[in-house]
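Hey, I was hoping to borrow your eyes for a little while. I've been puzzling over a protein and I'd love to understand its fold better. The fold is given in discrete form, as structure tokens running alongside the sequence. I'd be grateful if you could look everything over and explain what you see. No rush at all, and the record is pasted right below.
>
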Amino acid sequence: MARALLTRRTAVPLAALILAGLAVVAHLGEILLAHRGALDLHFFASLSLIAAVMAALTLLVHGRKPVAALGVIVFPLAAILLAVDVFLAPPTIPTPMDWQIKLHVTLALLSYALLSIAALLALFLAFQEPALRNRRWSRILQALPPLTLTESLMFKLIGSGFVLLSLTLLTGALFVQNLFTQHLVHKTILSILSWLVFGALLF
């Protein structure tokens, strides 16, 4: 995928997409091995899992829209976070969860991944708009998605992420006994603030 930033072509070879797909599978497999098949929500494990979901979603999005430049950022980031989780993070013991909590966590991970990709697209927009006005960085601009596509895709991802974040808060209210206990209060407040911010952007 990095070739798209070094040449004037934005199409990604099929072989690169296959390798990217294998990388996502390998990442998820390593997470399962490292955490003994359990869903571990400690800090570095969560970051690694979110990055893996981001990589998978980037591939899915690229199947419909030419967003190779996203992969140039997402895949190295995923590799770094996986390495930190496996080799540098202290050993942890996953907490047993029932299906309700697993559903809540899955919705949260998907929403965080979607909104993180949307944030990357927002950075693309912040770069593209002044670069187009000043007619600079033309080679990189040709590798990025068109400005209108970037903006449209960003708002679609924000919309999808907002729905999933809403479901995350709903399932948390239904299934988590006390969202404002000491170890959860900061996550709850940040999630509510994120929900308000992204809701304001959409509506």
The CA atoms of residues 22 and 85 lie 19 Å apart. The radius of gyration is 18 Å. Residues 99-134 form the longest helix (36 residues). The helical segments are 3-6, 14-34, 43-62, 68-88, 99-134, 138-143, 147-175, 185-202.
